[in-house]
Write a structure and sequence with these properties.
Layout (H helix, E strand, L loop, with lengths): L16 H9 L2 H8 L3 H7 L5 H14 L5 H7 L5 H15 L5 H15 L3 H14 L4 H13 L3 H14 L4 H13 L3 H14 L4 H18 L1
Helix pairs in contact: 3-4, 4-6, 5-6, 7-8, 8-9, 9-10, 9-11, 10-11, 11-12, 12-13
Length: 224
């Protein structure tokens, strides 16, 4: 499964992966039914007793869901079915990565493309345009924070992740980024706290469990 949402420097991807991810999650034979669902229908299907309908409902929210649907999707991250957990996470990112502003969304896409091309200074400039145009768009701050990490500017990255979290308190990606920043700055105690908070929101962040172990190991070393 392509993780299009978590475009951290330790796991670079692209919003363009959204389409590929959804093709993987939704085979051709049910793509039409999935694509025609509106938000109300998608929300209804998330409560279906049939796994396939639930999968389609949760997945469709990536395109038609709103921030109001995030609590439902966060709860689905603890679903007993792995496919539902995966689809729910993809849909959370799908919602978070939309500014719902044509101009801003275009600039945001350009910024992500520049990251993929490793044009980090240009990406920083483009994402700065995004946050200046829409300072309330949490994902703009989060993605610019990732670029600051790629530029080895960890303090600026932390501030951007912090801003993203203040705008979106459920942003487990921002919490993870803050944890990496604190770890880089030699504060494993704070890093471990941020990693734990990210896992509390999304228990499927397997790489964050590994980062937490590293932070805890470093903390123990510092105490001996």
């Amino acid at each position: 499964m392509i993780n299009f949402g978590r475009l951290r420097p330790w796991c670079i991807g692209s919003l363009a992966g959204l389409g590929l991810a959804l093709v993987t999650l939704f085979p051709a034979h049910d793509a039409r039914a999935w694509g025609l669902m509106n938000r109300t229908e998608a929300l209804t299907q998330t409560d279906s007793p049939h796994l396939e309908k639930r999968r389609q409902g949760y997945g469709r929210l990536a395109d038609v869901g709103t921030m109001d649907d995030i609590p439902l999707l966060l709860a689905a991250l603890r679903d007993e079915e792995a496919i539902i957990r995966g689809v729910a996470e993809q849909s959370i990112w799908g919602i978070w990565m939309r500014a719902n502003d044509t101009s801003v969304d275009h600039s945001f896409q350009v910024g992500l493309s520049l990251v993929e091309q490793k044009e980090y200074l240009q990406a920083r400039a483009k994402l700065t345009e995004v946050v200046e145009q829409r300072p309330d768009f949490a994902e703009g701050w989060h993605r610019r924070g990732e670029v600051f990490v790629l530029l080895d500017d960890w303090d600026s990255a932390f501030r951007d992740f912090q801003q993203a979290l203040s705008l979106n308190p459920n942003h487990f990606g921002a919490l993870e980024g803050m944890g990496h920043c604190r770890l880089n700055r030699g504060d494993p105690k704070a890093a471990a706290d941020y990693f734990r908070r990210a896992i509390e929101l999304n228990p499927n962040l397997w790489d964050v469990y590994e980062a937490l172990e590293r932070a805890q190991a470093r903390l123990e070393q510092n105490q001996t």
